[in-house]
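Thread: "does anyone have the structure for this chain?"

Original post by V.I.:
We have the sequence but no experimental structure in hand. Need at least a predicted one for the grant figures.
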Amino acid sequence: MGRYLIKDTEINIETLSTLDVGIININYPIGSANDGIPTGTAHFLEHIICSMHNFKHGKLTAQTQRDETNYYFYVSKNNIDAIFKELSWQISINENILRQERNTIRNEIKQFNINSRNRALEYLHFLLFKGKGYGRSILGNEEQILQISKFDLEKGMDLYKSPKSVNITGPWKKEYIMNCICQSDLIGKTGLHSSINNMSPITIGRGQHTIIEDTNVPFLGGAWFLNINNSAQIYIQILKSIWENRITKNYPYFTLRIHLYNYGGILTVDSTSVKADQTDIEKIIALMKVPLSIQEFKKALIKVYINYHRLSEDLQTRLNHQNNLDLQSALNKLTLGDMLDFQRNIINFISYEIGLYLLVNSEKKSNICYFPIKESNIEVLKEKNTFNLPGNTKDKEETQKGDNSPLLLLSKKNIYYTASSSVLTKRYHVLLRVDCKEIGRLLLSNELPSELLIKGILENVRYEGWHTLYHISFFDEISMKESIKNFISYRWNFGNHNSSINEEQYMKNLEIEMKWRIIKTFNNPRVKNRGYLIGISIVTPEEFTIYKDYFENFYTEEIQPPLSIEKGIIENKVIKARFHGVALICRLPKQTLCALILQETAFGNNVSFPTLESLVREKGLSYRIVQSLISDENELYIFWGIQCNPNNIALFKDVVQEWLFYLEKYSDEVEKWFKRTWVYLNPQNHNSIFQLIRDIDRMGQYTQPSFDINFNFKEFIKNIKSEKLLEITFDEGINSMGE
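Reply from O.Q.:
Generated one for you, tokens below.
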């Protein structure tokens, strides 16, 4: 890591020479805690800057926090010169962009408020800090957003004269990057580095209050001010891990959170369970006062190390983590004595008497076909329209050399396997795709049987149609290998064990809830409580290459799904949910990579054609869209859903049809963009392990059975336009399904 200082701006550069893509982070000292501008202004500015920034050479994302605003530019190694020439914050705010982003943010606030707990935790911040500084909402509310003027936004732009820091991780040499920065206009003549230069003195509220009236979920929460700042991050990670473990054992329906800022922190304990009682909070505080033990300390250290590796496997989190926290050296010096001193210090701020509380009542070896994917261009594969099958000597030799290109394997028992490696990870990753149609519902995170894992860590659970995707990581190849054997031999039976499971508690955001509910529009097949493993994808460290004979050691007797599973019939047109919304389901002409192109273009960045998300935002319908492919027997469907008034379903259908028109018109540009963006043929172009394992898994799932990667996107879209768009309504409080 190279660290430099130009005027008042800190520059941090990390070189990863084997990558073909990198990331630039620019950090500005403007956040929601700034009392000099109206609540929500910092976030409003972020939206406007992202919309107006003419960034042609990569992908731009941004995030507003209470202390700062961060911009992230994903860039290929060949475009780094152009980037610094494009980085300019001189924008002219007009009424059109003001109106468009105002509507977008209002929709974002509605989606944030789907979860009543979000509103309750915001209110805890507000009351604890008496509405000043850190008590100010990042998003604001609808009334505040309507009152923000062009003058307010231009005043906020004063804090963009010079960045607080510039942080870069990628394939570029440090000296070259420094030269690019010095020749650019990125760092201004004056530095405004007081993150909250107009912040009122921190004052603490206390007492019992009732939160906003429209909260219809029981809530009990307590909040305490911590007189420490984000420099104590390492200590807080260790302490929080230990405290969370204690609380989970004794009060599993409570959640502990600790947020650290530049000038203080906040600790909250809350629950939405009807079991929660205010006296529980007093008991939880007593648990936190018990001195840490050496066993707890060691277990917490392991968790922090795991988190350190996890953050390093994504360029954006790696960049934040590496630049703000020298974790390795700090952990090596940390002792139990240090942690006991820190615990005593924190407990001084936490007691039942000074807390602020909110209360709302309310099996055999199989013959395997191998398809080694070469790093040759997609155009070459398109001309050949085939992969070289086993038996070709040249292919065998190249595979055995350890080609880093993804390897795709197909079992005769209808299981596909994909494998790749990456410089971003020192761990071993496995993605399992489980077909849940015959279970009649998707699986939850806690339903992955513990006996399947040999020292494995469940990273996340993702959903695509009827499929549940479990992402698991391992620190060594032996553990991964043993677990894969368990995955293949397991029968995925769920019987009555999960009959009383509470699905709703796992629906933590709009995307998850919509994906869970949309499959219920299909008339469920006869439930047999049986799922089928249909795909295994692996990502390993760069120095570890998986060869084509690797999987032959795993096979036990595999049980195939039935040859003909009952085809779903879309019957339910109104679905009970916690939000109002609409969705459209469309049958796709065939299962090819064109289906993935269609899915990716809905959210595409830096494109010459309109995206579905951009059209939805421009019409003021919603802040974001949710979509997924659904495999149903031999049919493939796609759905698009948004949160909005159900009366807008006709308008949403018009927007989707308009988007399909644009995709047909710009089909050539779409194909070129996809070949450049969806880089499954080159792992070094991925910016995270999650992205890489997702892409190689999709390659195995959505190119079957022919493994045809021919593109004819224009014809594909023409066929889709002739299909009927089936309308679905999500209605809050309506029980149309007998639930």
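V.I.: this helps a lot. The longest strand covers residues 532-541.
O.Q.: and The mean pLDDT is 82.
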